[in-house]
Structure formats: C-alpha cells, structure tokens
Amino acid sequence: MINFDFDQYCSGCGACFNVCPVEAIIMRENDEGFLMPEVESAKCIHCGRCEQVCPHLNREKFLDPEKVLKAVWLYSSKNDTAKMKSPSGAACFDLGQKMIESGGYLAGCVWNKQLKAVHQIGCDMDFVMKTQGSKYVQSETGFIYKKVIELLKGDGSVLFTGTPCQAAAMHNIVMSSCKNRRDQLVTLGVICHGVSSPAIWESYKKYDTERVGSPIVTVNFRDKSKEGYKKSYCRYDYADGRTTYLPTFLPSSKYIEATLVYNLSIRNSCCHCDCKGINRGVDVIVGDWYAEYQGEGKLGTSCIVANTEHGKEFVLGSLSGLRKFSYKQILQKNAMIEKSIEPSPNRSIFLERIKDYHYWDKVEELYPPKYKYKKLLVKFGLFDLLKRFIG
Ligand SMILES: Cc1cc2nc3c(=O)[nH]c(=O)nc-3n(C[C@H](O)[C@H](O)[C@H](O)COP(=O)(O)OP(=O)(O)OC[C@H]3O[C@@H](n4cnc5c(N)ncnc54)[C@H](O)[C@@H]3O)c2cc1C
Ligand code: SF4
Ligand code: SF4
Ligand code: SF4
Predict the structure, then answer these.
(1) Reported confidence tier of residue 71, pLDDT bands at 50, 70, 90
(2) Does a structural domain hold residue 1?
(3) Fewer Cβ close by (within 10 Å): the C or N end of the chain?
(4) Are residues 50 and 87 in the same domain?
C-alpha cells in the first residue's frame, strides 16, 4: 500500500488511483487545493500495483545506464493559425494532428465547461485544438490513464501530452500492465515550471467575476494577437462580451504574477521534481525557445528534445522543417528543463490568506520589493529601455 510524505513528494499525477484494482485509493483535495491520494487501508489487498507505477517511488528507474538523450531540435510550425493559438511554435499541435491523421488518439489538457483544466482524450481535429494553449494550473487527470490503456489494448495508438510527471505516470502504467503495447504510445512532457493549485484558479475566477461584474468564459494565458510571441498577453474574455489583455510578463494579471512569477501557490513536489530532464519515461520534451531564430517570424518557436529512440522516430516521421540544436544551449536559456523551482517564502501565508478570495486585492504585499520598482519603470516606459541598456 502506497505511503510516503505525500504532502512534500506526491505530484498528484493520479497513477496510483488509476491502477488500484479494488478502488482503495481516492484523490482528495487537501487544504491547499491540491489533489492527494487517500488510501482506505481496510479495502487494500496489498497487490503493490500503486507502488509499481508511482513516478516518485520509481524515480531512479527513469534514467538509463547509458546516455538517454537522442536528438534535439528547434521547430516552428508552418501553420500560422495554429501558432497564433499555441504558446510556442505549435509543436504539440502538429504532433497531435499527425497522430490523429494516422488514425490514432491524442490525450491532453483542455479547459472544460467550468474553465477547469482537465485531461481528456480525443480523435479529431476539434479536440487537438482544445488542447492548444498552456493552462497554468494543475490539470485533473481523472481516469485518463485507464482510458489510454483500454485504447492501447484495442490496438489503438496514442500520443499522451502533459507535465513530465503525468507523462512518466503514463509510461509506468503501460510498463506494468501491457509492456508489449509500449510502442503504440508516445509520451510527451512539456518543459515544466511547476503547477499551481486549482483552488487558487477557482478563487481568482470568483474574485474577477465580482470585480468585473461578469464571469470569464475563455482564457488564453499566452495570447499573441497583439504583439506576437515575445510579448504575449494574458487574455480574458467575459460573458458580457468584454475582453481584457494584460501582459503575460510583469505587471500582469494578478493570477499570473502570484502563481507563475512569484510561485506563491506552487505544488510542493514541484520544488524537488522527480521527472524533469532527460528520462526514458518521457519520450519527447517540448518547451519554449525564447531567443529569436532566423526566418521564424514573430509567432514563436518550440524546442524539442527526444529522450528515446521511439520519441525520435515519432518526431522525425511527423514534422518537417526541424533544425538540429544543442541540449546545452536549451539548458542555458531554459533551466526549467532540469531545475526545480524555488517556492516563495510567503507561500503558506498566501495559501492561508487567499481562503478569503477578496485577498487578491492585497496580494501585491506578498511580492518581493523589486516588484514595485519594476512596476514603476514599466509605467513610465523605462523598463524596456533599461533592459536594452543592461543588455
Ligand atoms: C504548467 C506549465 C508550465 C510550463 N512551464 C514552462 C517553462 O518553464 N519553460 C518552457 O519552456 N515551457 C514551459 N511550459 C510549456 C510551454 O508553455 C508550452 O506548453 C510548450 O512549449 C508547448 O507549446 P506548443 O506551442 O507546442 O503548444 P500547443 O500546441 O498549444 O500544446 C499545448 C500542450 O500543452 C499541454 N498542456 C497545456 N496545459 C497543461 C497543463 N496544465 N498540464 C499538462 N499539460 C498541459 C496540452 O496537453 C498540449 O499538448 C509550461 C507548460 C505548462 C502547462
Ligand atoms: S496495494 Fe493494491 S490494493 Fe492496496 S492500495 Fe495499492 S493498488 Fe490498491
Ligand atoms: S505521485 Fe502519483 S502515483 Fe505517486 S502517490 Fe502521488 S498521485 Fe499516486
Ligand atoms: S514540476 Fe515536476 S512535479 Fe511539478 S508538475 Fe512539473 S513535472 Fe510534475
């Protein structure tokens, strides 16, 4: 029966919950709004399946004795419409499209009707489009792994996309229940900063609805329609027809500032992540490539890392226009591919105070002092100038 310090080390991937044959495990929201496993010991038959699939308990198994990294590329989709909606170069979108065109399925994160991030599975282009965009909140995986296993056993092929811990969970489940089907599955993990609590997103929506007088109906945290990729916007569309745009970078929407910039509600496991970097549970890694790249236009570029031969074959067979690149350069510019995030020293204060959603009005008091100076510089148009001057 699975048991360790869940609060610190469980990533909430839901693998244990998916494999328990007697439903002894449920995923329950903790005090901070994160889903954690809860095991009913009276029901447990001690089969050990939960322990076999847990990415935390099996973290050493991800690393191959020999070097795992197989290939690294930069990629920018030729489909500008897709790139406009995707956060970087629409690599995930194009890979999803290829999988669908070859008769397979895509599993990925979508916004549901209540604007909650959830994992679902689909087999048409409408679904691929729903997975577009980074939802900066932890997604609920539900029974997604079980559904993928059913499809694999029925001879289907699946591209599974998610955070590296979710991709690793998917890999572990297949390896423990139908190893011979592993070739039908490609696991793709995004470069992952870390995830914020779903309860914080709910509280922000409540606060914003009251402030604006109308609920948010759609959100794009990386909208490129105004100034392209390098200066994306956090776009909220409201039920009454209004739309607001706030820069994705500081000063931004309070939600982005608190969760993504200052890490006030980051999951504890993200501060010592077991699944980042080069590991063979995640066939392919996709992330942002922030620097300009020749001839790319202004809609964005993705970096792609193939950790396995299987991942390399899938990418090479699906995408054209890949440009070979170096892992070292990605690591230099985008340390999150390996490095875990530091939580804010004010994390627990924030999570306590935000239980009253009106606290969003005062959240700036928990930001580091440099925020105020940056905000002033931006207000007077001096920030970009100073950045250019410093180089
Ligand atoms: C929480 C989070 C943190 C990230 N942090 C970084 C970072 O620090 N550095 C970096 O380079 N890149 C980061 N990314 C990845 C980056 O934002 C893009 O998602 C990635 O480059 C893919 O871009 P694309 O243009 O191919 O996306 P698209 O073609 O639009 O595809 C987006 C993909 O992301 C998946 N996805 C979206 N939201 C979630 C979610 N909440 N949980 C799991 N999967 C999700 C979807 O399933 C889909 O496959 C992060 C993404 C997320 C979701
Ligand atoms: S050991 Fe088996 S029965 Fe017990 S909780 Fe884990 S998966 Fe369920
Ligand atoms: S990391 Fe995943 S498998 Fe391990 S205990 Fe947490 S939810 Fe279960
Ligand atoms: S940082 Fe690690 S533990 Fe946190 S969501 Fe990303 S992959 Fe999972």
Answers:
(1) very high
(2) no
(3) C
(4) no
Single out the residue of 71, 9, 4 nearest to residue 340, CA to CA. Answer: 9
Give the Å distances, CA to CA, from 275 to 91, 300, 319: 21, 26, 25
Establish whether residue 39 lines the binding site of ligand 2, counting it when its CB lies within 6 angstroms of any ligand atom. yes
Residues 100 and 191 in one domain: yes
Decide if 149 contacts 114 (C-beta within 8 A).
Answer: no
Give the lowest-confidence range in 59-73, 100-114, 243-257, 278-292: 59-73
User: Which residues are registered as beta bridge partners of 37?
Assistant: 27
Buried b (16+ CB within 10 A) or exposed e, 10-37: bbbbbbbbbbbeeebbebeeeebbbbeb
Q: Is the CB of 44 under 6 A from ligand 2?
A: yes
Q: How far is CA 391 from CA 174, 289, 318, in A?
A: 48, 19, 38
Establish whether residue 203 lines the binding site of ligand 1, counting it when its CB lies within 6 angstroms of any ligand atom: no
The tokens for 176 are 């423990």
Confidence of residue 377 (pLDDT cuts 50, 70, 90): confident
**In terms of domains, do 23 and 155 share one?**
no
Give the pLDDT confidence of 133-155 residue by residue, as tens digits: 999 999 999 999 999 999 999 99
> What domain count does the chain have?
2
> Of all protein residues, whose CA lies closest to atom 8 belonging to ligand 2?
20
Instruction: Considering every ligand atom shown, identify the ligand nearest to the alpha carbon of residue 25 and give its number.
Output: 2
Ligand 4 atom with minimal separation from the 13 CA = 8
Chain Cα centroid distance, residue 343: 17
Please check whether residue 102 is in contact with residue 356, taking contact to mean a CB–CB distance below 8 angstroms.
Answer: no
- 100 Cβ inside 6 Å of ligand 2: no
Q: Which of 279, 109, 282 is nearest to 188 (CA)?
A: 282
Distance 169 CA to ligand 3 centre (A): 8
Range of the domain at 48: 6-61
